[in-house]
Design a protein that fits this description.
Order of helices and strands: HHHEHEHEHHEEEHEHEHEEHHEHHH
Strand order of the largest sheet: 7-6-8-5-9-11
Strand content: 5-15%
Number of strands: 11
Radius of gyration: 21 Å
Shape: globular
Largest sheet: 6 strands, mixed
Helix content: 40-55%
Length: 364
């Protein structure tokens, strides 16, 4: 991908025009542009080259390296290569790595409001999350939340609505959730606990073995595109929808604040543009690949695609409302994030009633 094309696509044509007129050496000589070549490390919560998530992190590193003409080179380390999957936040905060690619709901133990910037049960979908973050005040709140940790977050990917999860045994009613050990992170895990399940947090690379061995009874991961690649259908045959727990999960690129602020202005703009470009590209990839993968799971691998029972959905919705209110009551930033998100959701719902939903109804 050429620098001019990348930056124009992200709305930074003026920056691209200036950079494209110079070679990397000439750029360094331009007024106000540093010729220093930097090498950054990016740690991720995903296995290396894992479709969508791992490849998305690799694509982001490649885009930054290419768009800067090699002035900022980014090397990616998958989960466990430099730090474990759930230590990305700390590694970037303390400067072990300059960048991290992960999901904010993993850090709810560090900041109660963190999950609101990834996925909220029965909350915003991908389109709405982008609207809230970029144009509804969400990103400003997110950056305020991460500032005490020395981090600057950027939206950097979205899978769209996920699936409800894989279950070793069919769910007939709400009673089947009692005591069920399920891999499910974030606020969704807290909701499942309220309806009697036993949520656990397992890194992506360990889900298959845990499900296959019976260490867990069910697992929520992403959706057909990723689930097929992980072979989850070989460990469980019951795949449920809808993905109430993650309707629009935003992934994050977090950057060590000191490292980011040390960049010259043009490199800061390029990093931001690349994150935004990846945010769009990943959602497009999942939109294109998920149904293809779902067809393969059902037709070729005998997966039973099932809808969650009505009593389960009702209980999950009621529990979600209680959990969200309790989290908001416990933390001022969580209160601000939830109120901001709910106001935006009401606005988006009203508009979508006469736009997206009305169109789906007429399209058939």
């Amino acid at each position: 991908m050429k620098r001019r094309e990348l930056l124009r696509g992200a709305g930074l044509a003026a920056v691209a025009t200036g950079l494209a007129a110079c070679t990397p050496r000439e750029q360094g000589a331009a007024a106000g542009v540093s010729a220093e070549r930097l090498q950054w490390k990016m740690v991720t919560s995903w296995p290396t080259n894992f479709p969508g998530l791992g490849t998305g992190a690799a694509k982001l590193a490649e885009m930054i390296t290419t768009a800067t003409g090699g002035r900022l080179t980014v090397k990616v380390y998958g989960a466990g290569e430099l730090v474990p999957a759930f230590e990305v936040f700390d590694a970037v905060s303390r400067g072990t790595a300059e960048m991290g690619h992960s999901a904010a709901y993993y850090w709810k133990g560090k900041a109660a409001a963190a999950p609101f910037f990834c996925a909220v049960p029965f909350g915003l979908n991908a389109q709405e999350m982008n609207g809230w973050l970029y144009s509804g005040g969400g990103l400003e709140l997110w950056r305020e939340l991460y500032a005490p940790f020395g981090l600057v977050p950027f939206p950097a990917g979205n899978t769209g609505v996920q699936m409800a999860g894989w279950f070793r045994k069919p769910l007939e009613s709400l009673a089947d959730l009692k005591g069920l050990k399920m891999r499910i992170p974030g606020l969704g895990g807290e909701v499942m606990a309220r309806v009697g399940a036993a949520p656990v947090n397992v890194p992506g690379g360990e889900i298959f073995s845990a499900l296959q061995s019976g260490a867990i009874d069910a697992a929520e991961w992403v959706g057909p595109y990723n689930d097929l690649a992980f072979g989850l259908h070989r460990a469980a045959k019951n795949c449920y929808y809808p993905g109430w727990q993650e309707p629009g999960p935003t992934l994050e690129c977090m950057i060590n604040r000191a490292a980011f602020e040390a960049l010259p202005a043009d490199l800061k703009a390029i990093v931001e543009a690349c994150c935004r470009a990846l945010n769009d590209a990943m959602l497009a990839e999942y939109t294109a690949r998920n149904q293809q993968a779902l067809d393969a799971l059902v037709r070729e691998h005998g997966v039973q695609l099932r809808q969650l029972p009505d009593d389960v959905m009702l209980a999950l919705r009621k529990a979600s409302d209680k959990v969200l209110e309790e989290v908001a009551a416990s933390d001022p930033m969580a209160r601000r994030a939830l109120d901001s998100m709910r106001a935006f959701q009401a606005q988006a719902k009203a508009w979508h009633a006469v736009s997206e939903e009305a169109y789906y109804a007429t399209r058939g």
